[in-house]
Specification:
Layout (H helix, E strand, L loop, with lengths): L14 H21 L11 H4 L8 H8 L4 E2 L6 E3 L17 E6 L3 E7 L5 E11 L3 H12 L2
Parallel strand pairs: 1-3
Antiparallel strand pairs: 2-5, 3-4, 4-5
Length: 147
């Protein structure tokens, strides 16, 4: 039994060519599905809002000051953060806080550490850093090897 294909300018009589065409069709479907995926909702939280967070504030006051619930509001996972300093520890070496709320945006990250009575024990902020792609890292490494 032979499969009759329309004449599209290429003779697809061999099994290999038919498998290659099927593979291209699958790849096309994957690309279309990837491009049609839902995008992340980007929320613009001004930096001035996080500058209003202070020690001793209640959790509800922090949520009101920041203006958005804690969450990841980055437009891409290729955005990271660099922190300097140490974690908050109590006298026996464990964490000196009860829970943490985190906000991540394209420009900054805010972590707020709360005590058991839901008041701010500490907080820290960081600016965002774009994480290079594997291609950019490879190009950088190759350039560093060249004289």
């Amino acid at each position: 039994m032979t499969l009759k294909l329309p004449n599209i300018g290429v003779h697809l009589k061999s099994r290999t060519a038919m498998i290659a065409m099927a593979g291209l069709l699958v790849a096309l479907v994957v690309v279309i599905a990837y491009r049609a995926r839902p995008r992340r909702a980007v929320v613009n939280i001004p930096r001035e809002n996080i500058e209003g967070v202070e020690l001793g504030m209640a959790e509800c006051d922090v949520l009101t000051t920041v203006g958005a619930p804690p969450g990841d509001y980055r437009s891409s996972k290729r955005i990271g953060y660099i922190f300097c300093g140490s974690w908050i520890r109590d006298s026996d070496g464990g964490p000196a806080y009860d829970h943490v709320l985190t906000w991540e945006t394209d420009e900054w990250m805010l972590e707020v550490f709360f005590l058991r009575d839901n008041t701010v024990a500490s907080f820290r902020t960081s600016g965002a850093v774009r994480i290079p792609t594997w291609y950019e890292r490879t190009c950088y490494r190759v350039k560093s090897l060249l004289p």
